[in-house]
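Hey, can you fold this one?
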Amino acid sequence: MRDSFTAQYHAFLQSLMFYTRIRVPAGARNSEELMRKATVWLPVIGWIVGGVCAVVTWGALHLWGVGVSVLIGTMAGLLLTGAIHEDGLADVCDGFGGGFTVERTLQIMKDSSVGVFGVLGVSIALLLKVSLIIEIIGHSGGRFRWGQPLLVIPVAHAISRAAAVGLMGTHQYVGGATSKAQPMTQRLSPLPVAVVMATGVLPLVVFTGSWWTVVVVPTVAVTWFLMGRWMRRRIGGYTGDCLGAIQQVSELVVYLTMAAVWRWHG
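Sure. Predicted structure:
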């Protein structure tokens, strides 16, 4: 039991090192085996990153207007993650936008430079994200309480990362053995995938209420299904960049869904 707990602790630290810029204890281990186990902790990373974004936004609301506060909160998330998921979205936009064969698409995605499709994709995603969060916060007057709309930020970060793990559990990895994400992308068995989904969804039920779950989970599930099907048709599976893209799109879908619900409800 103690060995299992220790292994999961180091797997969590491995996930924290890979997906964020947060410093971890000096004794943290680093191995391919731990990287494979680290995937299960991805929704928890989402709750941490999203929680930091929400708290920074809430704090900024005491000093500035909503627009500036949301920009500061979004910037905090980018700094915390090193824009790892936005980078994946940019590469997918470039590859899928400029490649007409599987080989060419994968080649473009491996290129470290960013093209016009990537710039446009990330720019539109960030603008849409900021605009939607501004609209959502407007429904709470900037108050940060359990159940208030500001909680949509950590919810979106956690659920969207669970969607990325879901892609790993159902689709074939085609990114190649040289990718730095390759050790974390081996297809998961049903039990770890179930644990990941529970980690992403259960706090949503506890902190926000069941109606959030009824609205958010189906829309993210549809997004996951459609994007996974699209990627399979285009390149035969997914790459590490595809995981970043599905996280970003799923996060936007949460904001779009909740903004629409609150607008309709109001």
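The chain is about 75% helix and 0% strand. Let me know if you want another pass with a different chain boundary.
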